[in-house]
Amino acid sequence: MSVDPMAYETQxxxxxxxxxxxxxxxxxxxxxxxxxxxxxxxxxxxxxxxxGCKVSPSQIRKCTEKFLLFMKEHxxxxxxxxxxxxxxxxxxxxKNVLLPEDRVQEQYxxxxxxxxxxxxxxxxxxxxxxxEAAAEQALRAELEEQKAVKAELEKILQCFDGLENxxxxxGAGNFKESFALLTQSSKKLQDVLKDVExxxxxxxxxxxxx
Length: 210
Prior knowledge:
By secondary structure, this protein is mainly α. The chain contains six helices and no strands. The protein is elongated and about 145 Å long. InterPro entries: Centromere_Mis12. Belongs to the mis12 family. It comes from Struthidea cinerea.
């Protein structure tokens, strides 16, 4: 069998020419074996019909195997010549023939250096695309976080609006002023509570000393 990869022919036919020749060889060889079995069967029938024939089936089988070996040796020689002719004249694409899908290379030829430059540029573009995709994902996550914060702020504003409405209903005036007074009152109460706690501690210490 030929060792030439014949890649261009494989691209055109969709199969390697060597594979095609191997299948043809196997088909011819199988047919040869089957034919010899048929011949052997016919010979056995003919010999059985001859009275007093002393040729045994095992002797017939040995003769069949020898003849099969003879035929196979000659077949291999003939097939080698047929394979050479078919691979050169039938399954071979001449060097000056260009397949339709490869004509673009003839219109836009490029060197190995140019091809490598295109590969490098493509790799850079892929890295940029991945970086942009990651940045877009981060922006989407930040946007979702901002939406959640906005929703919480809107809830707080609604709460303040409700408090302001309650203050107005009870004649408390401006909610901001009321809230400031409430804060001051709360601070005063905290100071009073702290003063009471300190006095209570002093009294306890005094009782313990007594």
